[in-house]
Amino acid sequence: MQKVNTVIGNLLLSYYSLNGLSQKSVLFLHGWRSESSLWEKAMIALAQNGYVVYALDLPGFGGSQYPEEAYGVSEYAEIVKKFILKFNLSKVVLVGHSFGGRISIKLAAQEPELISRIVLVDSAGFIDTSFKKKLKGTIAKILRPLFKIPGLKSLKPKIYSLMGAGDYLATPKLTGSYIKIVKEDLTPDMERISQPTLIFWGNEDTTTPINYAKRMNALIKNSQLEIVSGGHFSFLDKPQEFEKSLLKFLA
User: Fold this and answer.
1) Does residue 66 contact residue 89 with C-beta atoms inside 8 Å?
2) 3-state secondary structure of 164
3) Are 243 and 123 in a shared domain?
């Protein structure tokens, strides 16, 4: 597959596309710290079955330009909406992994006439209010002044990584966006979704745990849940199962 560029909302964005014979379009959205190339096998499988397939590098990831301001979920969803409209895609199916799932939830709730179905793969969308998360935040506040001491600043990435803040540290240009995104609870959006929804999840996912999948399944009225053996990248851990489930859901 060859990646090409387009301009959406004054941003230069990269994407892949494969043309099929179907009128149904499928748009893949990757997760945080990821890019569209991870969808290659699934894209080829769908194109071989006649679907028109796209995979977009979201702003700030892959080959796409960084946004000039801090984007929240709504701003990312607006970019995806403009992408859909620019290419006159119809009956769009959104397939979103992790952060891409957040965008899929938001857009399906806000633009039901554009989105026919959604597939949420180990999706984010809830605020982590667990004791462990709160404890990490408290420790981070305590440690922050210490990093100003000469000689200790170099330890910051290692300490934060041990605390599970890898996503925050790995995308310094998107720090503002990351903070806005993780602070938004998409429960109200999930309750508004009416489109058929496939929830595909790895039973060993520790980033977005299995209880997230069950909560989404309860909140989204017309949804079905499929759990496979795998972690947060369940679509890569079990590619054949994912492609089979996707084709069955789209048929």
Assistant:
1) no
2) coil
3) yes
